[in-house]
Specification:
Length: 476
């Protein structure tokens, strides 16, 4: 019984596990333990690897490893001894127990040359023992495999690359052929991996590989076009999405999403529509409610212009809410006169989903809606309480409340979004199953004047180092 370099007991004559890595800085491992070699012995090892299983005569080793020309016989013998000393060091490294278990790896042969019999050395390594051999075998099979299999195998092969192949002898004639072949195979593997990942609909996995190709081939116009196409495909994936983050709370799997678009095209969501404290819907002559308002669009697009139907549903929801006052016809000649608390939310069922009509502003007797960020925050808190009970755990879409005619004058659009997001995350702490997604819809015409920095900063502060546009534990 003997002890190997790792301290494990091995039966005498038992085979050791050898790994020679040349796809990057040269590294020798025996039974999983790195073995340190002197620079000359490392160079000798690389020279034998570059021979790809062919025997290399001592005279050739002296020229390639030591840079020595043929010498007179007495000097030649001294040089031969130097070669043998390095061969002995390499053998000991390959077989630390000195029990002959690695004798099959480094062979000694006698060659007949014009100078007479000459000793030669051959390194015999299988694909599992030499990373460049394994790389070559895996890539060659992957190039003819179906896309999913090819993607798996090519990814596996490229993980073996740790740097420039045979970097220690780059530029040496004896290594030139192998280096060029491995470099070309690496390039082929990368390009094929980009192609198959694209075929599989995974531009996100193809992109980093395409970037490496362009980095190494800056004048390759076709590679540059491929990279541009992948970036375009990834941008297109987001569609109307401007931002997406996972709520960074334990046990929560709710996303906050900002989209560019139309609130009433969010057909998979419950909708939030802002109202004043009188819940007016009258749009005649744009006096009480503007025909451009979200309330007016709600009537036209979801109630087919039937304002009375919406009014009936609002009145039904308000029956259980205590009014806070009633205006006279003299003080408020147009519109409704019964006032409800700011923050009142009426749930309007519609085709299997819910419209949450929430009062976040006060309509003055001069028919001007007014609100502030405290009123808006209070209204949002009431809204989330209603969503928790009546939301059916559907996504919730809402417009940028407070940015229209009932503008919250002390906040800009970006700050309004941040306020909405803050209130939502607080609600997620109170209601663990609130909604799988909060979707804030920004009109395209408002986007240029909407600074999203405050929202991104919120998530950055909560999750330092989080990747922009991606929440923690984001499912692919």
């Amino acid at each position: 019984m003997t002890q190997d370099a790792a301290g494990a007991t091995r039966v005498a004559g038992g085979q050791v596990h050898i790994q020679v890595k040349v796809l990057g800085p040269v590294q020798l491992e025996v039974d999983g333990v790195p073995v340190r070699l002197t620079p000359l012995t490392t160079r000798l090892l690389v020279r034998l690897v570059a021979a790809e299983g062919e025997a290399v005569p001592v005279r050739q080793l002296r020229r390639d490893v030591w840079g020595l020309a043929d010498e007179p016989r007495h000097v030649d013998q001294r040089n031969r001894n130097e070669v043998q000393k390095r061969i002995l060091e390499l053998r000991r490294a390959l077989d630390p127990a000195q029990d002959g278990s690695a004798a099959h790896v480094l062979l000694t042969e006698q060659h007949v040359t014009v100078h007479g019999p000459e000793t030669a050395y051959r390194l015999v390594l299988g694909p599992e023992e030499l990373d460049s051999a394994r790389f070559t075998a895996v890539v060659n099979t992957a190039l003819f495999a179906p896309p999913a299999t090819a993607a798996h195998r090519l990814t596996e092969a490229l993980t073996l690359i740790r740097g420039r192949p045979l970097a220690e002898v780059n530029g040496e004639r004896f290594a030139d052929l192998l280096i060029r072949r491995l470099t070309a195979l690496q390039d082929s593997a990368r390009r094929e991996l980009v192609r198959v990942q694209t075929d599989l609909g995974r531009p996100d996995l193809a992109l980093p590989v395409a970037e490496l190709i362009v980095r190494d081939h800056p004048d390759d116009l076709e590679a540059e076009r491929t990279l541009d196409a992948l970036r375009a495909a990834l941008r297109a994936r987001h569609g109307a999405e401007l931002l997406r983050h996972r709520v960074p709370l334990p046990g929560q799997r709710a996303d906050v999403v900002l989209v560019r678009g139309d609130l009433f095209e969010q057909a998979d969501c419950n909708l939030v529509v802002g109202f004043t404290d009188t819940f007016d819907t009258e749009t005649d002559e744009d006096i009480v409610i503007s025909r451009d308002s979200v309330q007016s669009q709600l009537v036209d697009r979801l109630f087919k212009g039937d304002r009375r139907l919406l009014d009936e549903k609002l009145r039904a929801g308000l029956r259980t809410v205590r009014a806070v006052g009633t205006e006279s016809a003299r003080t408020k000649p147009r519109g409704r006169r019964v006032r409800y608390p700011v923050g009142t939310t009426v749930v309007v069922p519609l085709d299997g989903r819910r419209i949450f009509a929430t009062a976040y502003s006060r309509l003055g007797n001069d028919l001007v809606a007014r609100s502030g960020h405290e009123e808006l925050r209070s209204s949002l808190d009431s809204l989330w309480a209603s969503v928790a009970v009546h939301g059916l755990f559907k996504p919730v879409a809402l417009p940028l409340l407070g940015s229209g005619l009932a503008r919250v004058t002390d906040l800009d659009r970006g700050q309004l979004i941040a306020l909405i997001v803050d209130s939502f995350m607080d609600a997620c702490r109170r209601y663990p199953a609130l909604t799988p997604e909060l979707r804030v819809v920004v009109r395209p015409e408002d986007l240029a004047t909407t600074d999203l920095t405050p929202v991104e900063q919120r998530f950055h502060d909560l999750v330092p180092g989080a990747e922009p546009g991606r929440g923690p534990d984001r499912a692919e």
